[in-house]
Each structure stands twice: as structure tokens, then as C-alpha cells.
From TrEMBL:
Domain HTH cro/C1-type: 28-82
A Pfam cross-reference name: HTH_31
Organism (species): Gryllotalpicola kribbensis
DNA-binding listed as a keyword: yes
SUPFAM superfamilies per UniProt: lambda repressor-like DNA-binding domains (SSF47413)
SMART domains reported in the protein's UniProt record: HTH_XRE
Protein name (database record): HTH cro/C1-type domain-containing protein
Keyword entries, A-Z: DNA-binding
The keyword DNA-binding is annotated on this UniProt entry: yes
């Protein structure tokens, strides 16, 4: 009979953890919307292309620290405040309970 292997604590699955770039993008979009600005207005002030800022906001690009600082400055927020907001979003996402399905997904489960 094989000897039992010691159990280890399960490693968190990376596909369930939010990525920094996704949280950063969401925070930048929230800040931009709060200022009622278009992508092109913010991108122009930050010195980046509208397409690149859009990709950052969607979490499709991992911007350099220089670009993050430029976009933060364009949105009148300090790099420290932006970093804290992203870190808090990551912490909240880690500790948030699993969401119950809503809308069509809820009805699909009921069927």
C-alpha cells in the first residue's frame, strides 16, 4: 500500500486573482470618468496615444512606471495615491466573498 503524502496548503490559483494591470486600468478609468474626460483628452496631457491609454485601462498592456506616473499626473493624482488605491482594490478583491449569480445567470441556474 502506498504511503500517504503529506498535505500541503493549496496554492492560490492565479486565474482567480486579479492582476495588477487590470486593477490599475480600472482605477485609471474610474479617475478619468470622475473627471468627465475622454480618452484622448487624458492621453494628450499624459503624452501617450489614445490607443495605448485605452489598452492600459482595459488591462491589456503593462505600462512602465514612467507612463503610470504621466497618466497619474494627467489625472491630478499622485503616484502614491494611485498605488494605494490599486493596492486597496487588490486587497478588497482578495477578501471579497464569491458573488452570487445575478441576471440571466441566476435564471439559468434556476432552470
Amino acid at each position: 500500500m502506498p504511503e500517504p503524502t503529506p498535505q500541503t496548503s493549496p496554492k492560490p490559483r492565479l486565474d482567480r486573482q486579479p492582476l495588477w494591470r487590470h486593477m490599475l486600468g480600472a482605477q485609471l478609468r474610474t479617475l478619468r470618468h470622475g473627471r468627465d474626460e475622454t480618452l484622448s483628452e487624458t492621453a494628450r496631457r499624459a503624452g501617450v496615444s489614445t490607443q495605448y491609454l485605452s489598452e492600459i485601462e482595459r488591462g491589456a498592456k503593462e505600462p512602465s512606471s514612467e507612463v503610470i506616473a504621466a497618466v497619474a499626473e494627467a489625472l491630478d493624482v499622485t503616484l502614491l495615491d494611485l498605488t494605494i488605491a490599486v493596492a486597496e482594490g487588490l486587497r478588497d478583491a482578495q477578501t471579497a466573498p464569491a458573488r452570487a449569480p445575478r441576471g440571466p445567470a441566476l435564471f439559468a441556474l434556476a432552470a
